[in-house]
Amino acid sequence: MVPFSNRLGVWRRRWAGPACVLALLSAPATLSLAQNPLPPAGTSVTGLPSLGDGAGMTVAEERRLGDRIARDIYRDPDYLDDPVLVDYLQSIWRPLLGAARARGDVAPELSERLAWELMISRDKRVNAFALPGGYLGVNLGLLAVTERPEELASVLAHELSHVSQRHIARMIATQDRLAPWMLGAMILGALAARSNVDVANAAIAGSQAVAAQSQLNFSRDMEREADRVGFGVLTGAGFDGRGFVSMFDKLQQAGRLNDDGSFPYLRSHPLTGERIADMRARLPLDAAPVHGPLRQGAASGAGQLGPSAQMHALMAARARVLAENSAERWRDWQQSGASATASPGERYAAAYASLRLGQRSQALALAQRLRGEVELSQRSAVDHLALEILLSPGAPLTPADLAQRAQLGEQALAGGSRAGLLLGAQTALAHNEAQRVSVRLLDWVVQHPRDALAWQTLARAQQAQGQTLRAVRAEAESRVAQRDYAGALDRFKAAQALPAALRVADPIELAIVDSRRREVEVLLREAESEK
């Protein structure tokens, strides 16, 4: 597995001969809109260029470039699919995307053809970034440092607006002499530079990473536009507009106090007094702050329920523990979260840190204590944590623990969330109930074919039932979901090579495998032709 910090060198060695290196290093250090100005003030930005009309890069080309970058991100060790955090981020992301569509900021063509997918990185530095094709990256550090859901939502709304206004495509259009694979390498190099303050000095990246970092920085006009459109998206989704201002204040303070690379977001999105003043001016003078889970005035109807501040505190605590690899830090959180005066977020961090330390009994005791301290609406999040703890390896569980695990697993399956489904499925497998959960997983992957983790869990359930052909096909589909077409093709071939008795026993599944193999072969050829 090649990390971001090394992958630029791989791209460089594979394709960048002397002429390519010269072309990259001679490119302008900053891409601005001087040659491609924004519409005059008062002009609608919803009818943006598409399919090359004025943008120079079609939506299809942008999506293909984004897909190639996404393939590499899926393979990166820092890529994280944590169902609990994914569910939480989606509870913020979906209303924002819905509001952008309702406002007309996302044109129908973009809505249909771009990915609109969030990707989480384990990196504890504070950062989020928009990628071509509708992919958005979120570092755990960003979630960990925010205090309320509207602060996180303000960053996501800003990045969403970079995509909806096609800022990346418009920047790339000014550098149309660069090949798409070089652009992909530049973007991956820039991501590496942002996650590692030393990467710019590394011999493997050389001066290419520095050039790539500069070329990804959005112009001031683009930043202002993303602020303006993003603020409308944030409030249109029903989040408190103060989230933008408080997040700006937090970043501004960090910029004054920290110069250690902990806030890469400030390097790619530098704050100005003008931007901060503009966001403050957009707030109504008599606006009352939003308390609790109620998001006022959502685009799809006032009074919609959204994440509460307490839920955000729990998820921020989870992000902090997941982003940290120091056992000493885990023990610090464990100790502070065990005190009588600990907040729910601190208690959650203590329980999760205990789990990572392998102290299952301590983790379970803290989780059970936490359950009585949180609001009723947050208890499912604590129950999911308790279920994770009970599913973790360790000494044999007591009969009481086994009964509690079975009960929590049933509740998780009945909840309807992705995290609940996957945790409930693991519980069912632990209790030798693979057949029952397979039906639920099959229904889920039909509706969510890009869910690699669900396909992997389904493969385990099918293998437990002796359905080898179906299990191998599910493994292949998990690789397709992450655009690993070579790995998927290998698994489809393995399914076709199973003993005849296993294949002929399930002729319909075998026909699906044959069809999917042909489809993946086409996708693989297309991917290789774009290198």
Quick structural gist:
This protein has 531 residues and is mainly alpha-helical. The protein has helices at residues 4-15, 18-25, 59-75, 83-103, 108-113, 140-145, 149-164, 167-173, 180-195, 206-216, 220-236, 242-257, 264-268, 273-282, 309-323, 327-337, 344-356, 360-371, 379-391, 399-415, 418-430, 434-447, 452-464, 468-481, 485-496, 500-504, 507-529; strands at residues 79-80, 117-121, 128-131, 135-139, 294-295, 304-305.
Task: Write a structural description.
The chain is mostly helical. It has three domains: 279 residues, no CATH class; 84 residues; 73 residues. It is built from 27 helices and six strands. The longest helix is centred in the C-terminal third of the chain and has 23 residues. The protein is globular and about 70 Å long. 47% of the residues are buried.
List the keywords:
single chain, 531 residues, mainly alpha, 3 domains, two-stranded antiparallel sheet, 27 helices, globular, disordered N terminus
Tally of separate helices: 27
E-strand count: 6
Q: Please, how many domains?
A: 3
How much of the sequence lies in strands comes to under 5%
Quaternary state of the chains: single chain
Strand arrangement, major sheet: 1-2-4-3
Q: What's the main sheet like?
A: 4 strands, mixed
- Shape category: globular
Question: CA-to-CA gap between the ends?
Answer: 19 Å
Mean pLDDT equals: 81
Q: Spans of 5+ residues with little confidence (pLDDT < 50)?
A: 1-54, 194-216, 289-304
Helix/strand/pairing class, anyone? Answer: mainly alpha
Radius of gyration: 24 Å
The percentage helix is: 55-70%
